[in-house]
Amino acid sequence: MQIETVVTGSLDENCYILKKDNTCLVIDPGDDYDKIKEKIGDTKVLGVLITHSHFDHVGALRNFLTKKSIKIFKKSTLHQEECEIGPFKFKVIHTPGHAADQIAFYFEEENILFDGDFIFKDSIGRCDFPGGNIKQMEESLRKIITYPKDMKIYPGHGEETTLINELENNIYLKEL
């Protein structure tokens, strides 16, 4: 699987485009649809995955909604824990704390997690926004530390990291 990052909007949100077999998934189309569309190129978009509904993660979503063949996947539409969309297989992990509708997508075969604003390199998402909850964040963090330590984490902002790096350097995970 090929992963391309498009940094979008005034908050430098990471939109990810996952490509495999001339198809792709788009994760968190924050803004700048033309930049996203350019990275998509000629690949067929099978779906758009939304980690949470904050404005900086869904700004270009309206451009995908106009295309009837593209499915939108977010917490309210993902009732199963394991999903398969074309050649892509992933697990949906409910990770509230930053937002009530916060979810992460774990691609077990590749051992990678797309987590929105759940975990950042050496930090976590803010819990003081409406819908945020520090107790839920702590429960979500306890859940995620059970995953493989070499799991690569692609956050909604900033650079990627690994779970082992976060366990060693992120004060919020070190305190668990």
Written account of the structure:
- 22% of the residues lie in helices and 32% in strands.
- With 176 residues, it is an alpha+beta fold.
- It has a single domain (2-174), classed as Metallo-beta-lactamase, Chain A (4-Layer Sandwich), CATH 3.60.15.
- The strands form 3 sheets. A 6-stranded mixed β-sheet has the order 6-7-8-9-12-13.
- The mean pLDDT is 94.
Secondary structure blueprint with pairings:
Blueprint: E1 2-8, E2 13-20, E3 23-27, H1 33-40, E4 44-49, H2 55-58, H3 61-65, E5 71-73, E6 82-85, E7 88-94, E8 103-107, E9 112-114, E10 119-120, E11 123-124, H4 134-144, E12 152-154, E13 161-162, H5 163-169, H6 171-174
Parallel strand pairs: 3-4, 4-5, 9-12
Antiparallel strand pairs: 1-2, 2-3, 6-7, 7-8, 8-9, 10-11, 12-13
Q: TL;DR of this structure?
A:
This protein has 176 residues and is of the alpha+beta class. It has one domain: 4-Layer Sandwich (Metallo-beta-lactamase, Chain A). The chain has 6 helices and 13 strands.
